[in-house]
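Ticket #4471: structure export looks truncated?
Reporter: QA, pipeline team
Priority: medium

Steps to reproduce: submit the single chain below to the structure queue and open the exported record.
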Amino acid sequence: MAKQSRNRAPDKRIDSAQTSHAARFAFSLGLVFAAVGIAFSALLAFSHLRSIDLPGCGAGSACARAAAGPLGTLPGLGWPTSFLGVVYFLSSLAGLAASRGRPNLFLATLVRAGAVGSIFLLGGMAGGGYLCWYCVGVHVASLGFWASIERARRAPLEPGRWQSQALASTAILAVFTLTIADIGLSKQAESRAESRLAESTSEIIKSVQQPAPSQPATTPAAPRFEGRYRLGPELARIRLVMFTDYQCEDCQKIERELAGLLNEGLDLSVSIKQFPLNSDCNPNAPGQLHANACWASRASEAAGLLLGADGFWKMHHWLFARGGSFTDGELDQGLAELGFPRDPFIAHMTGPEVNKRITADIEEGMNLGIFFTPMIFINGVELKGWNADKALTRAVHAALAAAPATAAADRPPEAPERFVADWRSNPVVNIPEPALRHTLGPDDAEVRVVIIGDYQESFTSEADGLMRLFTSGPRPNVRYSFVQFPVNQSCNPVAEMTLHPMACRAALAAEAAGVLDGPEGFWRMHGWLMSNRNGLTDAGILDGAESVGFDRSVFAEAMEQPFLSEYLTADTSLAKNLGIRSIPMVFVNGKHVARWKYQAENVLGRIFNEAAEQSHPPR
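Actual output as written to the record:
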C-alpha cells in the first residue's frame, strides 16, 4: 500500500500544476475580453457624450437605430446602454484583478447575468434588423469574459480577498463619472436649445407684430402657408404648421405637447405637411430611416381624401398613438374602429393622388431648407430650439401675447434665406491659425473662409472656384484656407468609406507642390487638380505638374516622400475635431455653413456680404 501511495503523489502534483496553468490562462484571457469590452463600450459611450458618429454609425445606420431603439437606453432611467457596458466591464475587470485568479461567487453571478443580458440584446438587435458591429463587439467580449470566468472558477486557487470591494467601488466610481458627464452634456444641449428658442421666439414676435403687407386689389392673394387640413379656427391668431414623420420620436413628443395646447382652448390652428424619412417615397431621406413612414403618410392622406379634415385628423391621431407603425391586420382593425370603408380607403392609399400630395409636401420642405423632422412654423416663422423644455408651449403663449397679425403675413423664408439664417445663428468655432497651412488672400481680410474638401469631389471644386475668384482682383476682401480631406481610407482613417480612388494621390500631389515651390507652387497645382478632377491617373498628375512649371521626375520623387502623409494626418485630424460629416465643410468667420447651395443658386456670396458687414457694424 505504501508503494501505491508513493506512486499517486506525483500524479496529483502534475494535475494541480496543469490546473493552475489553465487557471492562469483563463485569468489572462478574461483580462483581455474585459479590456476589449471596455474599449467598445467606451467608444459607444463617447459617441453619445460628444454627440458624434463613429465610423459606420451615421444617420440611418444600424448603430444609430440601435441607440434610438428600445434597447438603446435603460427602461425608466433613460441611461444609455453603452454606459452600463462601461460600468459592467470596468467593475468586473477590477473584481477579476483583485481575485488573483479565482473569481468568487459574487463576481461569477454578475458575469453570468451579463452573458444572459448580452444574449438578450444580441437577439433583440438581430430581430430588429440593426446589428451594430460595435455593439456586437461588446457582447462577444461579454460572452468570452463569461467563459473565462467559468473556467477560472474550476481552478484550486485561493480567491482574492478584496475582489467584491474592488468590483463595487469601481462600479460606483464609473456610474458617478458617467452620470456627471451625461448631466454635463445634457446641460450643454439644453443651453443650446434654450438659446435657439429665445432667438426664434424673438423673431416670431417681431413677425407677428408687423402688419400684413398691402396688396393692390388687382393682384391675386398669395396662397396661405398651411397644410391641406386645418384643426382649429380659420382666422386663428396663432397658426402652426408642422412638417412631420409619424415614426419620428421627436415629432411624437411635439404632438403630445400640441395636444395639451389644444386642450387649453387657445386661439390656435394646426395643419400638417408630410416629410416621411424613408427613401421609398422621399428621395431626400437618408435611406429607410423609418421603415413604415411612407405608408403612415399615405394612410393619413387617404383618410383625408375619403372623409375630409375629420377623416385626416382621426387617422393622424391613430397613427401617432401607435408610433406610425402598423401591420395589414392592425390597419384593417383600425379602419373598422374609425369608421373608414376598407376598399375605398386602400384604393386611395395606393393611388397616385396620395403620392402626388406627399411629393408636393416633400418638395416644399426642401424649398424651405428642411434638415430633419419636426420642422415647425408659427405664423410663418420657423421655431428653432423646439427640443427645449416645453418650447412649443412657451413660444405659442409668447406669440399670443404679442397680438399676431393676420394669416396673410405668414410666409416662411425660402431655402437660400434660411441657409444664411442658419449660418448667422451658428456658434463661432475656434480654428487654430497654425493649422491652416494653405491660405490665399490678405491677412486683414474681413471675411475668412475655411473649406475642408477633396480634389475629386464636385461640390468642393465648385466652392473652391468661387473662393479663388473672391481672393483675386485689385482689392480682395476674402482670406481663403483649404484643408485636405481625401475621402479614401488608404490615407485618411477618419473617412468612413473610399469614394474617390485618386483622392490620396491628388492630395499628395498638392502637398508635394507646396514643398517644392512654397505657397505659390501649392496653389498652382491646387488649381490644376480642381480643374481636372475627373479621370485622374498618376501619369495625368505628372503631366499636370509639368504644365504648371514643375520638373516631372523631381515632382514624381517628391510625391513619394513619407513625411507628406503627416500633413494629411494633421488636416484630417483637424476635420475630425471640427465634427466633419460631409464635404465640403465650409466655415465663414468661424461659423459653420451647413448648406450653401440650393438648386442652381450659391448662397456663399450673400453670407460673405453679411460677414463683411458684421466686421464693420454701423455706428
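Status: closed, not a bug. The export was complete when the record was re-opened. Leaving a note from the reviewer for reference: The first strand starts at residue 230 and ends at 231.
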